[in-house]
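WARN no homologs supplied; continuing
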Amino acid sequence: MARSQDKIDELAVNTIRTLSIDAIQKANSGHPGTAMDAAPTAYTLWQQFLRYDPKAPHWMNRDRFVLSSGHASMLLYSLIHLAGIEAAETAYQTQGGEAVSIADIESFREDGSRCPGHPEYGWTTGVESTTGPLGQGVATSVGMAMAGKWLAATYNKPDFTLFDYSVYALCGEGCLMEGIGSEAASLAGHLKLSNLCWIFDNNNVTIDGHTDITFTEDVAKRFEAYGWNVTRVSNANDLGELASAYNDFLATDDAPTLIVVHSHIGYGSPERHDTPKAHGEPLGPDEVRRTKTFLGFDPDRFFVVPDGVRQHFTTHMGQRGATARAKWEKLFADYAKAHPDGAKQIELIRDRELPDGWDSDIPSFGADATGIATREASGKVLNAIAAKVPWVIGGAADVAGSTKVVLNSPDAGEFQPYGELGDYGGNNLRYGIREHAMCAVVNGMVLSGLRAYDSCYLIFTDYARGAIRLASLMDLPVLHIWTHDSISLGQDGPTHQPVEQLASLRAMPGLIVIRPADANETVEAYRLAMPHKTRPVALVLTRQAVPTFDRSTLAPATGLAKGGYVLADAPGGKPDVILIGTGSEVALCLAARDLLAKDKISARVVSMPCRELFEDQDEAYRKSVLPPEITARVTVEEASPLGWDRYAGPDGIVLGMNTFGLSAPLKVVSEHFGFTPERVADAARKVLKR
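OK structure emitted
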């Protein structure tokens, strides 16, 4: 480092490096390179710019720092420890104490450590988002920045600037190679998110080697084409040059900023090639010793934090954050007196709560043999809820009109840069054809407290799987609204007809997948989904109209809350056969029940909109719906049969899809694949003969 730089700064940067290499070496696992070369970049941000109070890590107007290069996790854990961030109340840890202790760092990547292999939201306070799959962090940061813009446009008033936080994301070549990174950058550029700063640690190395074998584009020009402000730092060890770049970001008010930091993996200087080179593996004992000696640390001591380093963080980052938070809390108290309704909404957002009466205007649907598509019912319910919950915000990947997720109240508006198209206070989001970025953006908005939703056709969840999985991994109450749920969408054919998607989504831990049978089950699906604080919910809805059941003769739709329930029973509750369906196929089961009754065969129809919720029920309830002694069973779903044998049993029949679909009118497709009342009734007769 330059001689003019403060020695305590140099000591702090090198402490980040030595903690990182010690932890990785002891674990014999991890990636030391970026943790070392990006140490000055991250240190300068945290010490001089990041508005964050370590004693109040969930303060709403804090700046966000996302380590998109999640493999460099020890960089973040070292910063959290040195900054003295306190553990906050979550599902995993209690209030108080260090979020990351030296003992945690010493047990990096071991069971129970707050320093897992990649950063995990909720497990380690100070981690704003789970990262590791490259590109996810930067895309999620776009959602955080959008949430900041929305909160500011909605709640800031003259003399009350409650929300003006910045979002920083540190990324590498991998994040910018991934398609999701490009999708998210394009969207952020269009939206002119001036509160968003990506820091590109340009060290020209990936795990397979130097990037000249795969990645030779001019990243700066690409981002300029996206509409970003681009600035460069030629030497990653020059804290003054880094500070100038961050100031350039703060001075930019009409575009997101990309800071390209040129570094050499290991230490950061592109000119210094006589130093050890670190890749995606521990340095090894000899290299660790040489590195420590080069940095001026005792090679025979491990996990050392020199005197004065933590105090230095407290004096700068800690004091700055504490002062900003105290000022904000006084401002909010005054705001609450002047704008009590807005203050109450902000508190609800903070606590992931809903206002009283949030569901009071949800419609109910009368019996109708023709019925309504569940996507249509969903749109009506969503709009009724959004009118009561102003922080319901979302959209679709270019199909909002088709998936029926447009919020149509006069106050809803369009989330766009200020101008003719709308403003940042709008609740309707336009993602364009960017399914993967959309789902990551929603994760970022939900991490920021908004009740955000995404939407597309079920088949295209294949494009967004990484972000959908991370929402489940982070226990985020994301609302997914997916339509065109089966081969019954008809003439668009097998490229658009989902077959295997339901089974694969049901395999995802934590995700509640609900496929309602009619409009009133759709209502109950929303009643169940909205209050959730810790689990994402996927609503899987029909394109085509389905009958709205007569609940005066059938069980109430409130049975959906238990995942599966007896919709129509046999006389005396003693069926000969049980027909189990989901979604549009429940109507087939009811029609088949009528056909069987003509042959004096008594059938019970079970609606199973959510297998996950059904499995959450106690054994007594599950046996009451599916008595073990009734082994004659037929399951019906226009999708992969995978998993349905659990409910059909060894003697039952599973009616599903073992091939891709067909381009033809709906009725022709249904008859071609045998999804008719007659086929279901025939299967019931067959199973009874076994």
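The CA atoms of residues 70 and 359 lie 39 Å apart.
OK
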